[in-house]
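To illustrate the input format used throughout this study, we show a single complete record. The first block contains the structure-token representation of the backbone; no residue identities are included at this stage. The design step must infer an amino acid for every position from geometry alone.
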């Protein structure tokens, strides 16, 4: 049984590794600051205690955990000559990474449903999207994601891996680990595909159905201003969904094989693991007037306090 693996990483060029380290460090710091900032803004502002911002705060929390499960370890490997990772550490990284990634998929579906109720059934929004409903949807998302990750881990780590233990990637992801196996992986691939279809496909179906009704409802609004306002409430969500699913589908739904494909997988992985958690809060805050207003108030209050102390 293979007790440890070797992560090849993004590049073997030592100069490029240093550049990537500082680039990842900057992006990771922005990820922490922006996502923690979104959570604090929503927590401290009572008028943002609504279902939409409740789900947005969870998206920020998930993005923070999702990125933290991979980026710090990747940064260490960029500057270290030792690329080894133990079997337990590899399994833990895959479990955490898969759990939060799947939760994000499901949360995008939940947020689409929330927008559907807000736009298509505004008079019933308060009675449908109650606190109990919101907590139930969030709990179901986390639970289904953890279950999927558990099935994935048990399916992959019961395989026999080749003695080299070399993973042609910078993280312990499902596809590189399956490629490393010396066992018959057909049933394992089917099981993983079914889980991924349930999580990703189910969420995409809810998103597509919700926005079909939203578009139909918005087109019936007589005023152009009303249409713009309705569409603007969905713009941030649609942007994040398109970017996230675009890279994930590109990464997982293609014929395996060539070295160029592996390189493309790693580039796509960097985008949805490192870049997406950083830009999600920026997309939501830049397009959201209420978040920007609260941020301006907090910044203004901070400046006043600093000036008061300076004068004192």
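Output of the design step:
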């Amino acid at each position: 049984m293979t007790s440890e693996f070797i992560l090849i990483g993004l590049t073997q060029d030592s100069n490029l590794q240093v550049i990537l380290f500082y680039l990842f460090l900057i992006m990771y710091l922005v990820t922490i600051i922006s996502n923690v900032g979104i959570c604090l803004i929503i927590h401290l502002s009572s008028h943002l205690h609504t279902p939409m911002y409740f789900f947005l705060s969870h998206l920020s929390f998930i993005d923070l955990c999702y990125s933290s499960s991979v980026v710090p370890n990747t940064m260490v490997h960029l500057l270290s000559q030792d690329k080894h990772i133990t079997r337990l550490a590899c399994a833990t990284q895959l479990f955490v990474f898969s759990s939060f990634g799947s939760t994000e998929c499901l949360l995008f579906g939940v947020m689409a449903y929330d927008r559907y109720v807000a736009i298509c059934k505004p008079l019933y929004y308060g009675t449908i999207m109650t606190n109990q409903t919101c907590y139930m949807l969030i709990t179901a998302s986390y639970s289904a994601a953890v279950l999927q990750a558990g099935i994935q881990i048990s399916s992959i780590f019961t395989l026999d891996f080749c003695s080299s233990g070399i993973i042609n990637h910078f993280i312990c992801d499902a596809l590189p680990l399956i490629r490393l196996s010396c066992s018959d992986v057909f049933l394992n691939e089917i099981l993983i595909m079914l889980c991924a279809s349930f999580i990703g496909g189910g969420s995409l179906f809810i998103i597509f159905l919700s926005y079909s009704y939203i578009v139909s409802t918005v087109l019936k609004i007589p005023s152009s201003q009303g249409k713009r306002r309705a569409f603007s409430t969905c713009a941030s969500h649609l942007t994040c969904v398109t970017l996230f699913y675009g890279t994930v589908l590109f990464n997982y739904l293609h014929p395996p094989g060539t070295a160029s494909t592996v390189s493309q997988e790693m580039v796509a992985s960097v985008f949805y693991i490192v870049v997406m958690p950083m830009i999600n809060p920026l997309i939501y805050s830049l397009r959201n007037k209420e978040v920007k207003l609260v941020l301006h108030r907090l910044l203004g209050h901070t400046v006043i306090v600093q000036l008061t102390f300076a004068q004192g």
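Structural context for interpreting the output: Residues 302-311 have pLDDT under 50 and may be disordered. Strands lie at 4-7, 84-86, 166-167.
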